[in-house]
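QUALITY CONTROL LOG
STEP: pairwise intake check
CHECKER ROLE: data steward
CRITERIA: each record must contain a sequence immediately followed by its structure tokens, with no blank fields

ENTRY 1 OF 2
RESULT FIELD BELOW
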Amino acid sequence: MIYVSSSSINSKRISDSVRHLARHGITNIELSGGTEWYDEIIDDLLSLKKEYTLEYLIHNYFPPPTDAFTINLGSPCLETLSSSLSQCLSSLQLCKV
């Protein structure tokens, strides 16, 4: 199965990137970084998934963190480690939706 990265479309909102891909017949979409967080992000993605019968994969910095940082699960800095773990857990939670 081939998936196209949402980051291939330059947009601040992931929903705009996903909609653009879906309108061009792409139904397997990898949700990637490069967009900004907004409160309706999950609702928008679920709505688009249903409307266009989409399949999603989650990659790296998705959902986008509210404050940009570099994931480092091996960091000795507790703040970096905590942010990294939180980002990974957010991605896993989204996979359950």
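ENTRY 2 OF 2
RESULT FIELD BELOW
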Amino acid sequence: SGPAFCRRSRVAASSGLSRNFFSARFHERFGMTVAGYLFHLRIEMAKNLLLSTSLPIKEIAFECGIPEPNYFNKQFRRATGVNPSFYRARQGG
């Protein structure tokens, strides 16, 4: 996948390690891929923004680095089991 490859390359380059070595060590240490970790951070950020702000979901998607709202909804549902609107309503009240 293109975007994950680019992120992994930049992170690896900034660490002074090769992309493959960095990826292997990251997975060994954290039990997940770099892309998986970034996905987890984005979803956690989205959950926080859904509960602490009244920003529209499309704005939250953009803030979390997923500028396509439909893709954001799909990925959020994949991670949490519910769509962002339901998560906000269920957790907020």
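INTAKE CHECK: passed for both entries
DESCRIPTIVE NOTE, ENTRY 2: The two ends are 38 Å apart (CA to CA).
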